[in-house]
Design goal:
The protein is α+β, with helices and mostly antiparallel strands. The chain has helices spanning 15-23, 32-53, 155-158, 173-178, 208-211, 242-254, 256-259; strands at 54-58, 72-77, 101-105, 113-120, 125-129, 132-135, 138-139, 183-184, 187-189, 194-198, 214-215, 219-229, 267-268. 20% of the residues are buried.
Amino acid sequence: MAETTTNPPTVTADAAPAKDSAASAPKHDETTLEALASYCAVIVVGLFILTFIFQNFVIPSGSMEKTLLIGDHVLVDRVNLAPPAHWAPFVRYRTVHRGDIIVFLKPGYPDMFLVKRVIGIPGDRVHLHEGYVYLNGQRQDEPQAGHPDYSSYLPYRDEFPNVPTSLGQDIEPVWANDLPSHIQSGDLVVPPGNYFAMGDNRLNSLDGRFWGFVPRENIVGRPLFVYWSFISPEEDEEHVSMSERLQQMGHVLLHFFDQTRWSRTLHMVR
């Protein structure tokens, strides 16, 4: 009968030289070409993420105060609200909801990004009375939104859409012609494939009341959080010359610590 043993197998002395030989083998130094390829791979992945998944934007105006402040730098999710793609079945897509804050291209302005809050989705009926939003007949509780008093009341802005566009200001001509076709019984009816969006700073926001609906295809994404916020005047968005840009950059470098709003770092956008 063959003998068995429960003892673990032992390592023979012949295995030791092989281990020493492997340890003493010269290491392969990374060539310049290999290092360059590694850097390029990192850059390509980074550009892919920034182009197709996330994008950073800076808030240039006060139309979304107090939710978003002038000088807030936000990270925008470009995927969640995008039209579903067959090549990325693992991505979790969803439809646009009422109350979503969205970044989009202003209709008729292919290079102008805006950020507003979605008030009405397709089929919704919207009107304002004394500056308060009524959605499908119900007045909305919007603690984040500003409302007019007697001294700041403007009929077109605060009674939209029941005051003629001729009594308003800053209204896009195309919208002035198109608006009447979307009014039913005093309500603005949001058409299919479009959204009605407004700024939280209702008293100082050139939003859907002045230029119309946001087509679904114009929506870029939704801001997730503020990654940096720097105290900036609203007119900074008008600084387009090279000398003005350089002066602005110098100001940021000089006042980075004392004019950064540190309490808004990683502030979630809701």
